[in-house]
Amino acid sequence: MGRTDKESHIIYRYVKPSLPRMSLGFTLKFLGTVADLFLPWILAYMIDMVVPQRQIPLIIRWGAVMVFCSVLAVAFNVMANRMSAAVARDITRVIRHDLFSKISYLSCAQIDRTTIPSLIARLSSDTYNIHRMLSGMQRLGVRAPILLLGGILMTLSLDPMLTLVMVGILPFTLLVVYLVSRTGIPLYTSLQGAVDAMVRVVRENSAGIRIVKALSKGDYEKRRFGEANKDLTSREWKANIIMGITNPVMFLFLNLGLVAVIIVGAYRVNAGQSQAGTILAFLTYFTIILNATLSITRMFVMYSRGRASGDRIGEILALHEDLALGRRDHIENGCHISFEDVSFSYTVNPEQRNLLEGIDFTLRRGETLGILGETGCGKSTILQLLLRFYDAGGGRIRINGDDIRGIPPQELYAMFGIVMQKDVLFADTIRENISLGRDLSEEELHRALAYAQAEEFVKDLGLDHSLSSRGVNLSGGQRQRLLISRALAKRPEILILDDSSSALDYRTDAELRRALREHFEDTTTIIVAQRISSVMQADHIMVLEQGRISGYGTHRELLAGCALYREICESQMGGTTAGASHV
């Protein structure tokens, strides 16, 4: 994607507050660079004018001037470099913060389109490239051009003829820089795409390491990583080869110029048209100009990578909210939750059938809905629509009579306690994993643990026991009970349990359901489950088949009128009679 004016404005917005500090740094860098430029000129003056006079005090005086210029050059350059590092650090920190904040509020659809690995790469690799660009442009962006132009002006004051010989080389070097940088920027954009692919492979392997080991797929995953690594290496090699052309070509042109200067200078000294000190200073300035030109090429490399990364970061920061807050349409329907002929598809292809079609049901406050169905029939998608992670393609979803598209996100999410199908425990203490920054009291924590049937094992471990990332140092049942504790801790208005008891034994599952009935009678609960026993006592049970409601009612009603439910019941509980006897 090309860089748009809006994306450019977004990146510039972060630099703008630091412009006064950058200007001060540029001024210091300018003064230090000018002091550097005067040193060869003073040296040439001493050799040609002062030394022949054989006056020691005069030599010491001019030597002191050289020392003073050297101290100024070092001091100003050090201060300017420290300021540039601080400015780059502060700007990058703000960009990284805002990028993380933006990612946190992206809709699920936007995350699906961008992909998690790409977002990780933009937050890490791309912000690092921005940091390098900002730091390098401040250090080299002033010093290198001043050394280049100042060196040329100084040589003009020493010997215009030799300067013309040197300046004749510069158009060729600038042409090389232009052609190479124009080719290099698209290559670095492609390179960052390969970084996304490699991050994806590493992330998938890190998350699924147990599956890889269990299925003895280590060699297969090594090949996958090898292919991603090879692609990344190949693109980086190509980009670096193209950008690396500049240094040898620049050296070639500039050294040819240096040879020409030495030859012409030797003839001019021999003819008495120039002096030895002038030639010595000229060679020093030529070296300065050479290094300045090489610095400019390095700056273009950093700029190329930084611009490519800036484009990618700008794309995310420029994303508009695609779940915009709508008008708070309210009707009095006497229901806590209602789905009105809801349809949905994850794709925008009009020829592909909707994943969900004609979902229509109502729940009053305190009622429980159980959802059953085959894998991929849309059970979890119903929950994500209720949470407004996605907007329904058709129909309306209401909570307390309000269209959820008109409820502010913070108000909407505050209603819910959630345990998702693939929920996460963080690398923190049990206490923090349950409270999750909500400042819960000890009483609330222990009460939630008791309701979730987790109090016994947490008592042995302690609330301050540290968990590994994703809670891998707990059993599956312990993880699920902690996640349920988190959902129950603030006594939510709506409780969502998405396959949250699959790792629990039947006794613990029954105790959990009893605790919910006794202590959360005013909480509307939606349970997605694979086991009939988890939902058979619910007020309503919805059976989904290929995204449509195949049956809706109580356990007894579905046994009598829904063939799919009866089939599930027979396979899990040994027949319809057995199933009915458990009610």
**Terminal Cα span:** 59 Å
Q: What is the spatial order of strands in the main beta sheet?
A: 6-7-8-3-9-10
Q: How many DSSP helices?
A: 21
In helices, the fraction of residues equals 55-70%
Strand content: 5-15%
Unreliable spans are 1-8, 576-583
Report on the architecture of this protein.
- The chain has a domain of 263 residues: ABC transporter transmembrane region fold (Up-down Bundle).
- It has 21 helices and ten strands.
- Helix 7 packs antiparallel against helix 9.
- Strand 4 and strand 5 form a beta hairpin.
- It has a six-stranded mixed β-sheet with strand order 6-7-8-3-9-10, sandwiched between helices. The chain has a four-stranded antiparallel β-sheet with strand order 2-1-4-5, covered by helices on one side.
- The N terminus and C terminus are likely disordered.
- With 583 residues, the chain is an alpha/beta fold.
- Helices cover 64% and strands 10% of the residues.
Question: Which SSEs are present, and which pair or pack?
Answer:
Layout: H1 5-15, H2 19-50, H3 56-104, H4 108-114, H5 116-158, H6 160-167, H7 170-207, H8 209-214, H9 218-244, H10 246-270, H11 276-317, E1 337-344, E2 356-363, E3 368-373, H12 379-386, E4 394-399, E5 402-403, H13 409-413, E6 416-419, H14 430-435, H15 442-451, H16 455-461, H17 476-488, E7 494-498, H18 506-519, E8 524-528, E9 540-545, E10 548-553, H19 555-561, H20 563-573, H21 576-581
Parallel strand pairs: 3-8, 3-9, 6-7, 7-8
Antiparallel strand pairs: 1-2, 1-4, 4-5, 9-10
Helix pairs in contact: 1-11, 2-3, 2-5, 2-11, 3-5, 5-6, 5-7, 5-11, 6-10, 7-9, 7-10, 7-11, 10-11, 15-17, 19-20
